[in-house]
Hints:
The complex is a heterodimer. Chain A is of the alpha/beta class. Chain A contains 7 helices and 10 strands. The longest helix of chain A is centred in the last third of the chain and has 16 residues, at 180-195. Chain A is globular and about 55 Å long. Chain B is of the alpha+beta class. Helices cover 55% and strands 20% of the residues of chain B. In chain B, α2 runs antiparallel to α10 (290-333), α10 (290-333) packs parallel to α13 and α12 runs antiparallel to α13 (393-420). The two termini of chain B are 30 Å apart. The A-B interface holds A 55, 58, 60-61, 80-81, 84-85, 87-89, 93, 95, 99-104, 112-113, 115-118, 120-122, 160, 164 and B 1-2, 4-5, 8, 12, 15-16, 19, 336-337, 339-350, 423-424, 427.
Amino acid sequence: MSSRAIIRLEGIEKTYVLGEENIVHALAGVDLRVDEGSFVAIMGPSGSGKSTMLNLLGCLDRPSAGRYLLGDEDVSQMTDDAISEARGRRIGFIFQSYNLIAQLTVIENIQVPLLYQGKDLKASYDRCVELARMVGLGERLDHRPTQLSGGQQQRVAIARSLVNDPLMILADEPTGNLDSKTGAEVLDLITGLNDRGKTIILVTHDDKVAARAHRIVRMKDGRVDQDVIQRPS
Amino acid sequence: MIPSQFIITVRLGIKSLALHKLRSSLTMLGIIFGVCSVIAMLAIGEGASYEAQEAIKKLGSNNIIIRSLKPPEQARQSAGGGRGGMGLKYGLTYEDGARLQTTIPGVLRVLPMRIIRENVRFQRNEVPCQVIGTLPFYPQVTGATQIRGRFLALLDQEHAENVCVITTGLARRLFPYQDPLDHAVRIDAFYYRVIGIIQERGQVEQRSQAGKMEGQPLDNNVYIPLAASRTRFGEILMRRSAGSFEAEEVQLHQVTVQMRDVAAVETADPQVKTLLSRFHDQNDYEIIVPLQLLRQAEQTKRIFNIVLGSIAAISLLVGGIGIMNIMLATVTERTREIGIRRALGAKRRDITLQFLVETVVLSIGGGLVGVAVGVVIPIAVSQLTTMKTIVTPWSILLAFGISGAVGIVFGLYPAKAAARLDPIEALRHE
């Protein structure tokens, strides 16, 4: 099938200079294409360049060399402001440790990404409530993160990741802090999003989690080692 | 940022501050002390100088006042002047008055005054007074206002009439139950008909304040024609006290020279000095220029304000450093939050703004409380002591403005530090 490419990495390199003769090549020439609507798991042992890959894909960092096209924009050369803007608008993050803001309620946490896109919070309030309902937290809009269980917090994070209707969702070990039952529930939710057409990139080292993906990219020594399509998206 | 988002940022700032109530209020305390000390100190300074200025203004800024002065003992002996016959002769003369009038350019009026201490009686009431022999234009020179009747007239002067004008205070003391007009009061051995009541400038209904037990209120004055003063009291004034007896010859006790305008006062001041020194071989007079006193008072006030202001400013500075310290700690503590916000699309300036708003909320909040306390303190000071205090609007604006500026200046560095954090590092922060 000929889907639209959401991500195109061309010859991406990332080097860290730690000392005069201590240069680490975290990524040593990565080419990768991710199409719209796909569900990709990135795997690899620690030190494989997996985290660096995640940071680059999430626009949290810029490559030392190469080109990164996110949608139709080249984000590898953007200014800090422009890349922040692209990050907020085009990427939804789900973290291992949920990363909710402690002093805000559930609904306010969901609204945070809207704030930085200069959107009117009143106008999109109903949509935020809708998202909270979708992840099963419609009754807990005014709760604080500390009053929620881990699974519930991760659900809030999922709702938050969707609020700007991003091009893709970037999940970093989303079930890593959860027991297997809640983990499975959260994973169901993420899979459900993909079923409805959302592109998902998931970083994990859990094979069971990766098994849900359509395609598994295995990293090794800063390169893509294996790229396996398990089933067509 | 659109305004509604700014409001959200402010609300968020307040929320974050409310999370640590004790810490926030302690931080605010520094600003509160700073602001309230600026306002209170300036109010006390302003009040003190206001009192001094009022006292000087009462003398009239267009006037030059020359007073007769009893020369010091040894000077009298060495000069040997007049010690032989009937007492001591010193002070201003009628000729001095005439010379001032004719020689000094820009003179409007020269008002001579003879001031004699004497008891004034009406029926059973007796009040110690200053009996002032003067000319009809006294009110125009000193700014006294006629309350009832009329002031002395030219004819009174020409005929040396036994008429008098009394001040409001004296009228109250001497005539508690009657209308003073047309009654005769006795001064020394003569009777004078009361023809008017005047009020001295600045003596606005002096109510007897608690703690102001002065021996003799200022406004017990009787004004009689200068000619009457000369003929009834004579040139030689005798004073009897406890068996001893002192006589002195003083023609005029005070001459007030009214100048055309303030500029003329400046030029006339040295001229008056040289003129008088030529005709007086002893130092038996003093020249008071209220304008100069006023300028000195203003100068003093300015220095006073600068000193007080800088003490207060230092305390504000200390408060500001306190804020900066806390904000730096807060930034470190909330590094994770900064990382999350950056990941969710916050630009550097969004982070800067967020922390800056928090600091400004702290300092403005402290400023508001400080203004409230700073307004109350001077009131309390006035209540508890006799000190006068004036809270000027500009001192409130100044203090409040400084507190806001302190917030921005000392908040900028922590906020910039927060914005500079690398999002990846910040997200990894525990």
